[in-house]
Amino acid sequence: MDDTLNVTYLTFGGHVDVDRYRYVYFVIMFTIYILIICSNSVIVYLIWVHPNLHEPMYIFIAALLINSVLFSTTIYPKLLIDFLSDKQIISHQACLVQFHMFYSLAGAEFLLLAAMAYDRYVSICKPLQYPTIMSKTTVSIFLVSAWLLPACQLVLPTAMSAKEKLCRFILNGVFCNNTIYKLQCVISQARFVRDMVILLNVALVPVLFILFTYTRIFVISYRSSKEVRKKAAQTCLPHLIVLINFSCLCAYDVIVVGLEADFPKTVRLIMALQIILYHPLFNPIMYGLKMKEIHKHLKRLFFPAKIK
């Protein structure tokens, strides 16, 4: 606690041998951050400049990749600064901002994947109505809602956390996630219920909707022609893989507070880094390789001489 400025500082206690390997950590994470920005930005650029990719499905993919960059930018700059600092600290207020951004963008990811699932359902199961249903207005509403709804729902718990008395000042992590609750002197039942409602709204309900939608798509596709089944597999499988991957990583984050005492410090660090290291790189690789039209434009961009 800085009494002069009335600012509470928290220490990140999740780093492993940072004094010994600070430059190794910095080079590795900085390289990964640049790769995340470049790989996601390339695909967003391709979707932006090619008119045949100006369709709802590709617009949602672009939004998902932009979300990945924003998500990474919430964590990486502070993490890189910490690697080069003698003390890995953050003010309580800044930690709450990072907490809010982290979970808002994670929630946006689930809602964007839900919008993509609905888009695929209409495209495959109601192709004649697709242009009417998935209009520019509908797409815009989905995009705004995906980013706005989680952010608005997380304002209250973030503001309430700012008023809570802290009994600990060392975070068992390398960035501000739900481990911030472990610093509070009292964790009320009301806060737990409120957080469960938010989790239900921004994660569990979208996941159930996505699973239901894709089940309907695969059932209808199975009864349809071979061409419809092929289209369903090509366009839905990447979305489903991304969903499963992100859901598993988020499950780590949700359970880590309750089980943190059972994990060695190194294991907790690895688990914490998975969601910010693996997933933002996974998205552009998955969509770049598995989405036929995007893959075609990538080949033209990087290997123009080989494309006739």
Write a structural description.
- The protein contains 11 helices and 3 strands.
- The protein is mainly α and 308 residues long.
- The chain has a single domain, classed as Rhodopsin 7-helix transmembrane proteins (Rhopdopsin 7-helix transmembrane proteins), CATH 1.20.1070.10.
- The protein has a 3-stranded mixed β-sheet with strand order 2-1-3.
- Helix 2 packs antiparallel against helix 3 (92-125), helix 3 (92-125) packs antiparallel against helix 6 and helix 3 (92-125) runs antiparallel to helix 8 (226-259).
- The longest helix has 35 residues, at 189-223.
- It starts with 8 loop residues before the first strand and ends in a 6-residue tail after the last helix.
List the SSEs and their pairings:
Layout: E1 9-12, H1 18-49, H2 56-83, E2 89-91, H3 92-125, H4 130-133, H5 136-153, H6 155-163, E3 170-171, H7 189-223, H8 226-259, H9 265-277, H10 279-290, H11 292-302
Parallel strand pairs: 1-3
Antiparallel strand pairs: 1-2
Helix pairs in contact: 1-2, 1-10, 2-3, 2-10, 3-5, 3-6, 3-7, 3-8, 7-8, 8-9, 8-10, 10-11
